[in-house]
């Protein structure tokens, strides 16, 4: 992950200093705090802070004075009810702050989720590190032939090797020239805010990203999905594991009613009802497009 | 404040249970946690949870690995710099969750600040308490004659007494009838979602309100201002005291660069420059409207 | 709807003055512009302005230079695709501005949708009109016995009459006293910002509400739903009719993939798959709670 | 600007087709509609649609039924009042949609303004054009020695030439290899979503960007400022010209109370008051840091 010994020491120090607090704490989350979990070749995700737990969701839903928990079972049921009926505001009462290191082209997708707070490392102010995402050979994939915005199978040996060679050499050269341009050794040195424009989109950046649980679930539903680009999906999957330990009831409800759920269109519902009455529904009699019919078949097969 | 013994006991219990955490804690805020601070006759503000402290602001601004503090003095300087130059994102990295009890007409003003998370006590689902805001006699004020949306001096004795009598009796009657309509004693009982419409805007409601520090400062700048309506200003002032204990550096910078600062228009700046050169600038030669000139005079007098 | 002859004349005048523009126009929406459509006893919805049409959604999705339309059929397909796959940003490229008159208790529900722009008539600044929502007898309903936040059947004759009498007399008295308090006839006159607190939640307010199409669809999905409170649902239904004329393709896709669609949980999907394989699934073997099983049965019956 | 003859023809066609509308129109804006205004070497800004005008701001502030204009002078005064007292919601009632072509490193700064709607050209789905920002020689500047995030004077001849040569050759090579990797000529062809990672941050992207007038003013205040990076400032300046023609009163108020205004801190105000009383205030007696004192001196000199 490219953390320096100093950085690792800073993290260790933080993990060694327990404080006393009257706030709600989530033991499952305390175990994760500050630890960097590797994603891709040089990236990571780590939790820097959090607010709330499963009980805090119920407490807000009930606008209660104390912890608001009647019983653990009760809380689970309430959380499932809230998730099922799209009552999103109680989930907004939990918050998490992550430190993420990620390639710029992934960051550009990520930032499209606007309901979050972000502090990104500034390449106007500071010098970026020489770290580039180079895909593992099995992820050097061909353009998909059925999906304009997707990838197909892995490229075959020689072509993959050629791609990797180009990515590596171009990154190296771009960074060499970046350093050369900003150097003040025997010259004035180009402004950092200009020099950064020579760096390709596979360079790593990092940011603090803070988001409430409702909006985080929305992010995860879209980005942990099979259709998301692999390079952002692996971040989403890592975050899923963390959230499952933080708010186990809420995460369980999220799996049941969002991640593992499917929305059936009016036409799809009509087909299912007819099937259940014993009718043999076909693509032709479904009233749906070929593509939607194929999608429905996949959903019903599971 | 109308807290029941049970509610007070729940709060005491919460304050008696310290937990161990690896997160950043703010000692000044721990002292406030859960305690209700009375505002108006039956309202309160209390902190339910918080995330971050002064150091967390710097940590985010530096996208650092550890606590990110070089020295305390250093942090103060950085925070003042960020506030002065409108770098708002590091302040968004702190978050606070409040439980507020407030009259409905105050809630309607408050909710206009949209960048916050809210869970309000539901009068569709539950029965509201018989608690109404009745102003103290010194706050029963006349319509301002110079400001269409403000109040002037306190009403004189008899008129004030008449007003208070009307507010009290109308509230009482409205609540009596509310109870009468929802009662299922010898009748079906009106739906709560309908019965609530009979209740006046001085009835108390309550909510959980969660907001980041940047947006909280924006709220406080507008609502702790002398032009804000008294009934919301007292909430803002109570929150100011809490924030000053939570993030003392950030609050100090807020006082210096926002609360105690003034924005001078292009024309006002021009006047000040001329004055400093020794020119005698008057309303007539200022190039400003009478009202703006009066406002500038007030600013320059202090 | 309580529009004065002057107001109606202002509206007529606006409708009589066509302008020339190079912008995209939606003929279906031009027919609605400015016209007030009555909702409840004194409320209304009317379109004050709009931006974009079906083609504008496609144009944004394609980031195109011209109108971006290849063919009408093509646009319909693209819009359905975008809606089906939760690509929400192109729908955000259409915007509508409504003028709405509505009871305060409805406004309080409405405002919970935060991603919109709002200018409300100010009762600090101005005097509210004497207009209160009094439900039609068939909507004076009992508290639901199965749903804590809902209503059941209409109250029977005498009880309904009593309720209506209370609502009317309390509204009248509250407004009489409001007028009496603010009057400057022989007295100072209470500040409007204070006097308004005596008014009940069934008084009408009004606002300009501006929202993009994506967030409007979100609002409509929740508020045109059978579980929404009747008094807000009628507004949502009126807006649905307007939107159907404005962006017919987008509205059609909204009906197919949102309004008429259903989200099946992971467990519900499992049940449906087993049913389609011929298994007799019962409440007991479904693995779901009684309530969820009941909901699934309802969905599958249609 | 790199618009193809086809694109220019599409734009011409749009400008030739006037429609009839009942909506408010802004003649100053109609003149700009669709026309691309060049920014940097290959970028542009063009207005694709707009909603509202100066009168619409007043109409919303008054929640009026008709156009809401009493007199033109009246509107100007109201708009200045709203701007001066930070009443932001009426300005949110105007909206503009822009099509912008800009280098990726500028887009990354721009997107930090989250309160806007964005549709960006997708490099997952489509192939980017071979267009890179190469600064004009006078903008190839050295790193600032006083400001860590700024630039100083232009680099001298030979060094500037070296920088330009590196930027050009690296861009060319990166794009050559991008094309080579995605080519399906005699090979499978790398997925576009992967190949894009080889492209540097000076490549041009484009998007539709829709924002309300209040948030646009916020963007312009920060980005048309002398401290903003040159490459984003030129976009902001171009937009300023367009807005001045669209809503002349609002833009005038923006210049008077925002762009040309200055916020004086509590300490700075104190200094100014002492100066006006005749005291000779110095850096030492100002109670301010050296940097703040320098900033105040600059403000007071004008």
UniProtKB/TrEMBL annotation, chains A, B, C, D:
Cofactor(s) the record lists: FAD
Active site: 223
Cofactor binding note of this UniProt entry: Binds 4 FAD per tetramer. Each FAD binding site is formed by three monomers.
Secretion signal, residue range per the UniProt entry: none
EC number of the protein: 2.1.1.148
Keywords: FAD, Flavoprotein, Methyltransferase, NADP, Nucleotide biosynthesis, Transferase
Domain of life: Bacteria
Catalyzed reactions: dUMP + (6R)-5,10-methylene-5,6,7,8-tetrahydrofolate + NADPH + H(+) = dTMP + (6S)-5,6,7,8-tetrahydrofolate + NADP(+)
One Pfam family, short name: Thy1
Statement: the UniProt record of this protein carries the keyword Transferase: yes
Tagged with keyword NADP: yes
Residues engaged in binding dUMP: 109-112, 120-124, 196, 223
GO BP field: dTMP biosynthetic process; dTTP biosynthetic process; methylation
Listed GO MF terms: flavin adenine dinucleotide binding; NADPH binding; thymidylate synthase (FAD) activity; thymidylate synthase activity
Residues noted as binding FAD in the record, renumbered to the chain: 89, 112-114, 120, 212-214, 218
InterPro entries, per the entry: Thymidylate_synthase_ThyX, Thymidylate_synthase_ThyX_sf
Pathway named in the protein's UniProt entry: Pyrimidine metabolism; dTTP biosynthesis
PROSITE patterns, A to Z: THYX
Subunit (UniProt): Homotetramer.
Family designation: Belongs to the thymidylate synthase ThyX family.
Function text: Catalyzes the reductive methylation of 2'-deoxyuridine-5'-monophosphate (dUMP) to 2'-deoxythymidine-5'-monophosphate (dTMP) while utilizing 5,10-methylenetetrahydrofolate (mTHF) as the methyl donor, and NADPH and FADH(2) as the reductant.
Protein name: Flavin-dependent thymidylate synthase
Organism (species): Marinibacterium profundimaris
Gene name of the encoded protein: thyX
